[in-house]
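cache lookup: miss for this entity combination. No prior model stored, computing from scratch. Input as submitted by user K.M.:
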Amino acid sequence: MKFTEEHEWLRPEDDVIVVGITEHAAEQLGDIVFVELPEVGTEVSKDDECVVIESVKAASDILAPIDGEIVEVNEVLIDNPAKVNDDPMGDAWFFKIKPADASQLDDYMSEAEYKDMIS
Amino acid sequence: MTALLQTPLHALHLELGARMVAFAGYEMPVQYPAGVMKEHLHTREAAGLFDVSHMGQVILRGESCEAVALALEALVPVDVAGLKPGRQRYGFFTNDAGGLRDDLMFANRGDHLFLVVNAACKQDDLAHLVAHLKDVTIEPVTDRALLALQGPEAEAVLSALAPEVAAMKFMDVITTTILGAEAWVSRSGYTGEDGFEISVPEARAEALARALLEDDRVLPIGLGARDSLRLEAGLCLYGHDIDTATSPVEAALTWAIQKVRRSDGARAGGFPGAERILSEIHNGAERRRVGLRPEGRAPMREGTPLYAGETGGDPVGEVTSGAFGPTLGAPMSMGYLPSELAASGTKVWGEVRGKRLPATVADLPFVPARFKR
């Protein structure tokens, strides 16, 4: 598993990467009330805004961590955005992306490095 | 950068694990570990304790309470002189353009008037009072904390410490003793729930707060939930829903301008902006503050432009407050629309992240009030 400075986690699964936000990020954001997911099939470039998360008071963006194609989104979050607070590292993944260039993952942190960053 | 001010409960907030933010020059708790959603829901189910010590408390004294009231009427378009002792009322300072300088609560406490004004406006409000009230002593109260206890259990909780509060009706004010401290209590608040606002000497604030928090029914509540609660209750936030450019008629606050101050009243006019305000009461205003219910789940936040149609045209209004309502279970906003689009049920479009999304004009409050009348 890899971690970004924007508090996203990336988990390779077969030929796609599953993307979510960390427990730390979910806690900082507070109670999530709305998630806007990208459309399946969208081509994204690294750092494109691709998910909007709204808490009671404010909106935040999640940026695409790598270039690629969105192949699946987690529809559960549409009706149950609070899942992001309940299980950010598991059931509340946001999208699965087919990487254009898997080596882009090398830029990111290991779990140990991420834990270091947030402490 | 000037250092932020702290309230008498600052150490307690930190001890309770509050996340602190800068607000109106003060360091204030925006939430505690429970989080905004839980704090909001808890307030409507049981009792929430708020530190609102940042707000301005002011005493006005003069020859008589009536004389002071009449003097204040030159600055606020409301019936101050007719307010009976032991009662509180909502009002606002107007400016020459008929806009609003601040909104406030004022109370007749027998031999003086007691005002509570917004934190961000208190210096300006004091200067305004000093500049215009002749033969009135204006005393800023700087040595007292202000706490709010709100929710259906507030009476049960507070009356355990001060039994006399149980007999209070909405907008009553009394002076009583709580834990040995002189407390000025009003039955009022900013959440739409029953509750009390309590002014105590600053040295006694922490002990009172701790005693209230000892009760299982009470949780500490931050400014985050304070905002979602007041928005569900349809209450204005000065600087957002009302400001120097909005008249009280546009802001749908005409109800607060009693008949005696209107054109046919015994003390008609005589306040800044009277010409415009009285004219708008008579003829209607061009725009109006309304409630809005976005159709989807996406909130429409402050600044969202509003359109009359799904495509084309210029914005006709904008959102002035918007959030997700935890009790409502949906997003909710307040904003201004032209009067002809202000009827409940009117469909408008808000531009969110470049897309126009539908919203419906809705009656306020979003969540019914539960005052002890």
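stored under new cache key. Residues 48 and 63 of chain A are 5 Å apart (CA to CA).
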